[in-house]
Design brief:
single chain; two-stranded antiparallel sheet; about 20% strand; alpha+beta; 5 helices; about 40% helix; Trna Endonuclease, Chain: A, domain 1
């Protein structure tokens, strides 16, 4: 179980609209921003070029475009099966700054520990965690 799994499990187990829930989700969001995730991308990323653009694989879920990402390479491989993929490691913070709130971000899709970050939740993260960023 990853640290993000633990934070997610704790947040989901708290009583709704409680101080414990608020703290658990704050901890979850802070863990998200600091965790390195694995993003399937269209082409091999140039990790030596800070200006290189990433082209994430975009998936359609019920008519909504979403970006999949994973909290471990093992989970990404479990999801991908034998399909060869290019992978870009990104922190949660870098993912938000790179892709913004245009699309939902889906962590560990089709696996047990799935978490969807919808555009309004991503906007919330920008408003509350990136105020100091220029």
């Amino acid at each position: 179980m990853t640290k993000f799994d633990q934070a997610l499990e704790k947040a989901r187990a708290t009583q709704k609209n409680s101080d414990q829930e608020n703290k658990a989700y704050l901890d979850l969001y802070l863990q998200f921003l600091d965790t390195e995730f694995y993003l399937p991308v269209d082409e091999a990323p140039d990790m030596h070029d800070d200006e290189a653009e990433l082209s994430p694989l975009v998936f359609d879920e019920d008519g909504q475009e979403v970006i999949y990402f994973f909290d471990s390479q093992e989970r990404l491989k479990e999801w991908a099966g034998k399909e060869k993929l290019y992978i870009a490691p990104l922190s949660g913070e870098d993912m938000l700054l790179t892709f913004g709130a245009e699309r939902a971000l889906v962590l560990n899709p089709h696996l047990d520990q799935v978490k969807e970050f919808q555009p309004d939740e991503i906007e919330f993260l920008f408003e509350n965690f990136f105020q100091h960023k220029g």
